[in-house]
Write a structure and sequence with these properties.
Chain A is mainly beta. Chain A is built from no helices and eleven strands. The N and C termini of chain A lie far apart (about 35 Å). The chains are: A mainly beta, B mainly beta.
Amino acid sequence: QKEVEQNSGPLSVPEGAIASLNCTYSDRGSQSFFWYRQYSGKSPELIMFIYSNGDKEDGRFTAQLNKASQYVSLLIRDSQPSDSATYLCAVAISNFGNEKLTFGTGTRLTIIP
Amino acid sequence: DAGVTQSPTHLIKTRGQQVTLRCSPKSGHDTVSWYQQALGQGPQFIFQYYEEEERQRGNFPDRFSGHQFPNYSSELNVNALLLGDSALYLCASSFGGKGDTQYFGPGTRLTVL
């Protein structure tokens, strides 16, 4: 079982709709959860992080965390063509305070105009 | 506010050669982590440096080594290059000796022929 799993997609969403990206993780000791956006040929760009159960909103983005289900998601409202990218879910699995990030393989999102 | 910088941008080497990649962290950051991202995969953690010491290491062979300088910049060295070392090498910086909330540099694209 992979430590962090994401549906590789591609996920196609019409412009203006809500895009929903999902991620599950295996280590119950995971402390911090991150969503990165990566355009083709570029490096990952941090979108949001979440530490506590529930929802966290930032503009058009909402991160949702459910530690009991070991599940984290990212919702993108009013999707724009510029949102077309690969979205990487990352988990910090604390090891005596030296947190490395463990990434999923990413979900490729395409916004259809 | 300077972000994370990496050099060179691209590099082509042949099997058996050695390579050194460089990274300068974001202003105010003191922790540097290195990741390898193969095509179509998520970034894989190589190691993390804090206070000029390797704090944590991922599942990479000893051919991969690093260094952190007093100004917090870092180098990644790879010896005896293999074809499978071809990837995007990412440097991420963070603050306070912790690996969370990491910000990535633009990456170095290494091609091994």
